[in-house]
Amino acid sequence: MTDRLLVLVRHGQSEWNLTNQFTGWKDVDLTPTGIDEARAAGRALKQQGIRFNVGFTSALKRAQRSLDLMLEEMGQQAIPILRDQALNERDYGDLSGLNKDDARKRWSEAQVQIWRRSYDVPPPGGESLRDTAARVLPYYIQEILPRVMRGENALVSAHGNSLRALVMVLERLSPKQIIDRELATGVPLIFRLNADSTVASRLDLAA
Predict the structure, then answer these.
(1) What pTM did the predictor assign?
(2) Which of 11, 73, 152, 159 does the annotation list as catalytic?
(3) 11 catalytic, yes or no?
């Protein structure tokens, strides 16, 4: 029986996660904690005995490095890796690089909360979660899902919002439900898919 395994992992803590800044498409690196989180994710996946056939990641180094560290822990560095900006984090536009507290002072707590947590209201010059989903989901359907349906085990290392767009579809969440769905850094989510691409089972490897 074909396993149809899809594993999603949000990258380890980044430098701007640590300093409470909006990151978006800014290409910041992992912190030492983020490195540890990515390695721990790799060890957790190794304990599951999963052999991956392909890795997917964004065009940003925090996700790429997290993938490399996970594969290193599993001894699976030789698998092909596909990188695409379709999997990039949501673009926060004018908020990118700003400390979240400073943004609240500038635009108000309520306005920043709307930009961060609404489904379809983008920040100035940036993307809403709906906009992010509009580029993530076609890539998933065209590039990732066909491989999984052929029986290739796929590991996706990406970002909180690009992965939330996928989780919304996989878990059949409404725009209202996805607003409250958080993805922790460095925690693998293991999905096994049915023959019709719906979710057969989901396992969260949070410690």
Answers:
(1) 0.95
(2) 11
(3) yes
